[in-house]
Amino acid sequence: MKIPKSLLIDPEKNSVYGAFAVAVSIWAFSYSVIFGQVLILAYYAVWLPLILVDYRRFMRQLSSAWLPLLFAAYVCSSVVWSQAPGVTARTAVQYFSHIACAYVAARTVSVRTLTIGALVGIFVVLIYSLKVANYSEDVLDGTVNFVGAFASKNQIGFVGSLGIYFCAVFLAFYRRGRLSLILTAPVVLLSAYVLIVSHSATSMASIPAVLALVALLAMSKLLSRRYRRVIFLIGAGLLVVVAFVALNLGLMDFVLGIFGKDSTLTGRTYLWEQGWNAVQKSPILGVGYAAYWVQGFAEAERLWNEFYITTRTGFHFHNTYIEALVELGFVGATLVSLIMLRTLYGHIAAVIFRTWQADSVILAGVMVLLLIRSFVEVEILNPYIMGSFLMYFSFFKLARVPVTRTRRAQALQQQAEARGEADWPRHAGRPAAADPS
Q1: Which residues pair with 179 in a beta bridge?
Q2: Going by C-beta distance under 8 Å and a sequence separation of 6 or more, which residues neighbour residue 173?
Q3: Nearest alpha carbon to residue 25 among 105, 87, 82
Q4: Alpha-carbon torsion 237, 238, 239, 242, what sign?
C-alpha cells in the first residue's frame, strides 16, 4: 500500500504522524539516558527519513537557516582547538544532527500538531516517572525532592512546566468542544503535581510569568496593529524600569525567599564565578564544545567533588551563557545569544507588528520560558534536549516557505495583500481575519 506524501510531510494533513513523531522525540529527550541508543535511533527515524519523501520541500528557503547553520559549523570546527577533540567531535555531530531534526520538524509539523504531540509525550513521560517514583536529597540545602525517572528535580520540573504550558495554550487556541477539556485534564493535573513535589524553583517561578505574557499577547488580538505597537513599546519600557527597581530595592531576594532560595541560588553563584575564571583562560574560542566536563580533567573533577556529583557526568555551570563562554568563547556565546534573541523577537514582532496569529503567540511563550531558564539552566546547548529542539523549531518557523496554494487560498492571499496584511503564519491552515490598522 502506498502512503500519500501529504500524510507525512504536509502540515495540514499529517496531524497523526506529526503528533506521534513529537511524542517519540519527547520520550527520547527524557529517557535516552535510561533506555540507551534505541530511543535516539527512534528520534532520528521519525524525522530524517522525511527528507527522502520530498527533498525539495527542505531545500526551499534554506538560506533562512543561515544563523543556526553557522553556529553548528562553528561548534563542529571547535574540534580543531578542543582540549578533548574526541568528545567534541562526537558531541558536535550529534548536535548538528539534532538541529537537522528540528529543521525537518519545523518544515513538516504545524504548531498545533506540535502542541498535541507534546501533550501526548509529556503525559507518557510523567506516568513513567510516577511509576518509578524516585526521590533525591539535595546535599546543599538538605531537601528531599521528587525526581521520578530523571536525574534531577529541575529536569522533571521543566517537563511539568511544559505540560502546564501546552495544556493552557491548547485550551486557549485549539480547543474543540468539551472533549478537549476532558483530554487535557489528566496532563495538567499530573504536570502540576510533579511541579509541586519536585520543588523546582526555576520551573515554578517561570511558568506563571510565561502564562501571563501569553495572556497579554492573546488579548492584543482585540486591538489594531497601531495600538499593539504603542502598548508594546510602553510595556517594554515599564518592564525595564520594574526590573531595575526590583534589583535595587532587594525585591529579588524576597522573591527567592518565597521559593526557599537564598542569594547564592543554592551554590549557583559560586559555579558562575568558577565558570568566569575558566573563561579567562580561553576567552575568544573557548576550550571546545563539550570539552570542559570531561572525566580526568582537574577542574571538572574538582567541581564534581565539591558539589557531590558522584556520577561525574551530567553537570554544568547552571547558566547557558557562562557555559557557552567556557566551551565556545565569546564567538560561540554571541552566536547562540543571537539565535535566542532573533527567535524571540521574530515571534513577538509577528504578533505585534503583523497580523495576529496564535502560532506566533505560542512560540513566543516557549521562547520566553527558555530565555528565563537560560540564566539558571543549560537547555539549548546540548543535543537530545527538549529545550534546544523547541528553540530551533521556533527559529525555523520564522521562515516564510512558499507552498502550493489552491485558487481560493490564492484569492484570499491577494485580498490580504491588498489590505497590507502579512500571510505568515496561517493559524491552523485558516485565513486570518481582517485586522484594521
Answers
A1: none
A2: 218, 358, 361, 362, 427
A3: 105
A4: positive
How confident is the model over 225-282, as pLDDT tens digits?
A: 788 888 878 877 877 777 677 666 655 555 555 555 655 566 788 899 999 999 999 9
DSSP state of 308: T
- Kindly write down the DSSP assignment for every residue of 201-212, as one continuous string: HHHHHHHHHHHH
Asked if residue 431 has a cis previous peptide bond (ω within 30° of 0), the answer is no
**Residue 145, φ and ψ in degrees, nearest 5:** -125, 150
Q: What pLDDT, in 10s, does the model give residues 360-369?
A: 999 999 999 9
Cell representation of residue 1: 500500500
Other Cβ atoms within 10 Å of 258 Cβ, number? 10
As a whole number of angstroms, the distance between CA 260 and CA 344 comes to: 30
Closest listed residue to residue 325, CA positions, set 277, 394, 266, 357: 277
What are 307's three cell numbers? 558539589
Look up cell 507518557; give the residue. 124
| Cβ neighbours, 10 Å, residue 420 | 11
Q: Are 265 and 317 in contact (CB under 8 A)?
A: no
Q: Where are the alpha helices (DSSP H) in 353-400?
A: 358-374, 386-396
As a whole number of angstroms, the distance between CA 123 and CA 27 comes to 10
CB atoms within 10 A of CB 106: 23
Length of the chain, please? 437
- pTM for this structure? 0.88
Among candidate residues 204, 179, 205, the one with its CA nearest the CA of residue 192 = 204
Q: How many CB atoms lie within 10 A of CB 151?
A: 17
Q: Note the helical H segments in 79-152.
A: 85-108, 111-132
Cβ atoms of residues 316 and 116 within 8 Å: no
- Within 10 A of 95 (CB to CB), how many other CB atoms are there? 22
d(CA 124, CA 130): 10
